[in-house]
Design a protein that fits this description.
heterotrimer, A mainly alpha (about 290), B alpha/beta (about 450), C mainly alpha (about 280), A: about 290 residues, mainly alpha, MetI-like fold, 14 helices, about 0% strand, B: about 450 residues, alpha/beta, D-Maltodextrin-Binding Protein, domain 2, eight-stranded mixed beta sheet, 18 helices, 14 strands
């Protein structure tokens, strides 16, 4: 009985989040699921049930097939790059050097500006003409002619990844930084008494204890990457052709701009299932890794 | 113990928020009231229409809500002028930035019955607003006589008009007179071939002829369609949506001319897709490129950026001489919510916008080009050709307005296709085929 | 030993300088162009102003009701962040310290919603907000933001796993209640991640554009970010105005960050274990 009461008390802590989340996230999702079987246009309340027609149409939509391949490329490219940069950056920002606080702020801040502003600023930097900032630098330093950073298919894809990495690396570094604080100092003291050098300490103390942080960070990178909208939209509007269309951009395009809300809902549902599968797989694998390390 | 104190804290926080919000509400209510008490003296002047309905001497204070993509600063002159005439009416001005954000905001508001009394209809949402019965039929309102007939089709369905617009715009090619002189171009091109020759002349003397971002159905494409197809068959788009014509029939020739003239001669290159609109305008202002497609909204910025520049707008010539067209359309239309509780006051506001005074205030605030009966707009000299030969002569074309249905889907297919043509991924024939396929798919969805 | 240690840190200052400059460069572009005339900005966007002008800032303060918007943003952000962090931290507690089939299910359930892009459920969400009469209410927006606690929940679960399990177990033996353990023992240990969460959420909500644009109508409830977008026209953007407003909006958040990040301090967890 006591055990039961304790259980109940524990579950009470979950109550607020479940209530808010069910209402504002799951309920609209269920409604979208329902709308995905209709030809609702987003305006007229009178709509018909058209069965699975929307779901069939998804697979003949050339925008969405292109968007899936770009979004996956973007997501994994960004996740890899950010993780490789953010962990060392966090360890550096953990040191007590003079300009530490300024650097923390500088690296953290790029995640803030709006897409509109990003497009404007990075438009200057990545301009394909000779007077573009990056093209000027390349010409002065290496005598390389102007490059079409945002209009050649592969370069445009890579440019969006680089800008996204610039924007979010500092953010993840701050996340790792918080987790670094949870590593008790005496671990390092004990290790250095045992004669472990700095590299060994990182290898055998820091990395293993950062494993939970990595699970969280990579999960956020993957889900955030798959949901990406603003950065490619701001930089390339999805072009050239459908080359840098993200899945979310196609959903917005079909649902809001083209008033095919039913079709867009079906896309959201399929997309949701894909992301869910990837996320569950990733969390399970990385949690197993955490346990393996510890 | 701590738990309860925390709960208390949360409750207080929530409450304070609620209270704070309430406080704000009552404030706004108050300002409305004070405005009203100030009015009572004035009512004799203009309140006649309203007095009749209320049967009282003092008109009841009314708050009109209005949603526009012109911001408050731009709308202020009209609203202030109106408030002076009708002091009992105050405004709740709401704003959403153009274009997508505005469309989404209005859409969600309409669906949940929270839409304002007055809103704007644009080319992008006209079908949905009109078909959904969200806008009041204004056709028989006397003030609609001020609206130009050529402005009506965009805001009409089956001969009924649902919004009032007092403005219009036309886009063309801005060219730099000094650079044209340098390349020895003395006369503006009369045919498409001459235009291409002029571009090549500019190229020869080391001047970049033209920048185009190819991010839309471009100004060049629309105008070319006007000068080559519409000039022969003004009803082409009607036929297209009746299923009597195809994109392949109308657009293949235009896209082929565009590709052979501009892409194959490397006048337009795919790397231009990566430019931003501001860069294009900057480069033109600084004299680094001889031409760029633009409209009246660019003029002030060009002059601010380089006061010494000599420039003017020109039309896009067709294959045969004499067929010159601009790209353009009516401005957004002001509509009255069909479910409004303040129908009379809302119509009063629209009526005010059609008066000479209202038109002038709107011109001042927005800096737009006024195209209305009996009003002469002050047009910048560099823009005069587009105003006289394009807007007022009706030689303007914009697919988004002329196409009857599925504009957004077709627009998107179009811009993807021209970018694919620009990078030599597909041919013009494949591009128009994909447009026909898209239209069919949208009709059968 | 200490000497070499210090030397190495000086090297860090020097090594980090170019990296910091590259990361900061886009911000330099934004800030420097708010002090230029349009002509100056077009001719040499990267150089320092040929003549420093402050008219853009003066204009912003004259033409927009920036103070009221600032207060609105402050109210919305402060209330939302406090609630989000509390709810998120609370939810992580049973998932980490009382793991069973039920909490595992709850975790998956919450994970699922994390995948849904906001834009995908826009219309149903708006209808819901309207049915609940939460449109054009500041508290309505705050309640909506509370669903952001799922994100904090994930940060907190990750962090809580690093708290030694002996701690709450010892407390149970001492007769602490389930709630007592959380508020008295666990929650204080979460300080670094709580600060981090506060920073993340503050930044997100302070800068959010879509939700205030959709769910607040009256101009008296406008947030700072909504003011920025008034510089956007149908065909052009008033860039000097846009950038100036952005800078003004970001200054408070910059100060906030500098203050808060100092509190991500090392050694709290270690100290607690010992004590």
């Amino acid at each position: 009985m006591v055990k039961f009461v304790r259980q109940l008390q524990f579950q009470l802590f979950l109550l607020p989040i479940l209530a808010i989340y069910s209402l504002f996230t799951i309920y609209p999702l269920i409604k979208s699921f329902f709308l995905s079987f209709t030809n609702f246009d987003g305006y007229t309340e009178a709509y018909d049930f058209i069965g699975l027609k929307n779901y069939v149409r998804i697979f003949s939509d050339d925008a969405i097939t292109s968007a899936i391949s770009y979004t996956l490329f973007f997501t994994f490219g960004k996740a890899l790059l950010v993780t490789l940069l953010a962990i060392p950056l966090a360890m550096i920002l953990d040191q007590k050097f003079l300009t530490r606080n300024i650097h923390r702020a500088i690296f953290f801040f790029p995640s803030i500006p709006s897409g509109l502003l990003l497009a404007y600023i990075w438009g200057f930097i990545l301009a394909p003409i000779g007077s573009g900032v990056l093209n000027t630098v390349l010409r002065e330093l290496f005598n390389i002619g102007p490059q079409p950073w945002l209009s050649a298919p592969l370069l445009a894809k890579l440019s969006t990844i680089v800008v996204a990495t610039w924007a979010i690396t500092g953010w993840h570094a701050v996340l790792y930084l918080a987790f670094l604080q949870s590593i008790p100092k005496d671990y390092y003291e004990a290790a250095s008494i045992d004669g472990a050098n700095r590299l060994q300490q990182i290898r055998f103390i820091t990395f293993p204890l950062l494993a939970p942080a990595m699970t969280v960070s990579v999960m956020l990178l993957l889900t955030g990457g798959l949901k990406v909208f603003e950065i490619p939209f701001a930089l390339t509007k999805g072009g050239p052709g459908y080359e840098t269309y993200s899945i979310t951009q196609v959903i917005v395009l079909r649902g809001i701009s083209e008033t095919q809300y039913g079709l867009a809902s079906a896309m959201s549902i399929v997309f949701f299932l894909i992301v869910l599968a990837i996320a569950i797989f990733q969390v399970t694998v990385m949690q197993r890794r955490e346990q393996g390390i510890q | 113990m701590k738990k309860t104190s925390l709960l208390l804290l949360i409750t207080i926080l929530c409450l304070s928020v609620v209270l704070a919000a309430c406080g704000k509400n009552s404030n706004t209510g108050n300002t409305g009231n004070t405005g009203n008490t100030g009015n009572t003296g004035n009512t004799g002047n203009e309140g006649t229409t309203n007095n009749a309905t209320k049967g009282k001497n003092t008109p009841k204070p009314v708050k009109l809500s209005i949603l526009a993509w012109n911001n408050e600063k731009e709308m202020k002159p009209v609203i202030d002028g109106f408030k002076e005439k009708y002091p009992h009416i105050s405004f709740d001005f709401q704003f959403a930035p153009p274009v997508k954000d505005y469309i989404a905001k209005l859409q969600t508001m309409l669906l949940s019955n929270t839409a304002p009394d007055i809103f704007i209809i644009a080319a992008e949402n006209r079908n949905e607003i009109i078909d959904g019965g969200y806008a009041l039929d204004l056709t028989d309102e006397p003030f609609m006589s001020v609206m130009l007939d050529s402005n009506k089709p965009m805001l009409s369905k089956a001969g009924r008009t649902y919004a009032f617009t007092q403005s219009g715009w036309a886009g063309g090619l801005f060219y730099n007179k000094q650079l044209f002189q340098k390349a020895g171009i003395t006369q503006l091109p009369e045919t498409w071939d001459e235009f291409i020759q002029d571009c090549l002349k500019l190229k020869e003397v080391g001047i970049i002829p033209l920048y185009d971002r190819m991010h839309d159905i471009t100004i060049i494409h629309s105008a070319m369609f006007g000068s080559n197809v519409l000039s022969k068959d003004p009803t082409f788009d009607e036929k297209l949506f009746k299923g009597e014509a195809t994109f392949a029939e109308g657009w293949t020739e235009v896209l082929t001319m565009w590709k052979e003239g501009l892409i194959d001669n490397k006048i337009l290159t795919p790397d231009m897709i990566g430019l931003t609109g501001d860069q294009v305008m900057n480069e033109f202002s600084l004299g680094n490129v001889a031409m760029f497609p633009g409209g009246p909204w660019n003029i002030a910025t060009i002059e601010k950026t380089n006061p010494d520049i000599e420039f003017e707008i020109m039309a896009i010539p067709g294959k045969e001489p004499g067929n010159k067209y601009y790209n353009g359309a009516p401005g957004v239309g002001f509509a009255v919510n069909s479910k409004t509780k303040n129908k009379e006051e809302a119509l009063l506001f629209l009526e005010y916008m059609t008066t000479q005074e209202g038109l002038k205030q709107f011109e001042e605030g927005t800096g737009g080009i006024i195209t209305a009966h009996g009003y002469e707009s002050k047009v910048h000299p560099a823009y005069a050709p587009a105003y006289n030969d394009g807007l007022m002569a009706g030689k303007i074309y914009l697919p988004m307005v002329s196409w009857d249905r599925h504009q957004e889907a077709l627009r998107n297919q179009f811009l993807v296709s021209i970018q694919d043509i620009a990078v030599n991924k597909i041919t013009p024939e494949q591009a128009t085929a994909s447009l026909d396929k898209k239209l069919k798919e949208m009709e059968n969805k | 030993m200490t000497k070499t240690f210090k030397k190495r840190l000086w090297i860090l200052d020097i090594l980090m300088l170019p990296a910091g400059l590259i990361a900061f460069f886009p911000f330099y572009l934004i800030i420097v162009n708010t002090f230029k005339t349009m002509q100056d900005a077009a001719r040499s966007p990267m150089a320092l102003p040929s003549k420093w002008i402050f008219k853009n800032y003066v204009q912003v303060f004259e033409e927009t009701s920036i103070l009221r918007s600032f207060l609105n943003s402050l109210t919305i952000t402060a209330c939302s962040v406090v609630l989000i962090v509390l709810i998120g931290a609370m939810a992580a507690y049973p998932v980490v310290f009382n793991a069973n089939r039920l909490t595992r299910f709850a975790m998956l359930y919450l994970l699922a919603g994390f995948m849904i892009p906001f834009q995908a459920t826009l219309i149903p969400l708006f209808q819901l907000m309207s049915d609940l009469h939460l449109i054009d209410k500041i508290y309505g927006l705050i309640i909506l933001y509370m669903s952001g606690s799922v994100f904090v929940f994930f940060l907190m679960t990750g962090y809580m796993k690093s708290i030694p399990r002996e701690l709450p177990e010892a407390a149970v033996i001492d007769g602490c209640s389930v709630g007592g353990i959380f508020w008295r023992i666990i929650f204080p240990l979460l300080k670094p991640i709580t600060i981090t969460s506060i920073i993340f959420q503050t930044m997100w909500i302070w800068n959010d554009f879509l939700a205030p644009m959709l769910f607040l109508n009256s101009s008296s409830k406008s947030t700072l970010v909504l003011q920025i977008y008034k510089a956007k026209g149908e065909f052009t953007v008033d860039w000097p105005m846009f950038m100036t407003l952005t800078v003004i909006t970001l200054v408070p958040i910059f100060i906030f960050f500098i203050i808060m990040q100092k509190h991500i301090v090392k050694g709290i967890a270690a100290g607690a274990v010992k004590g």
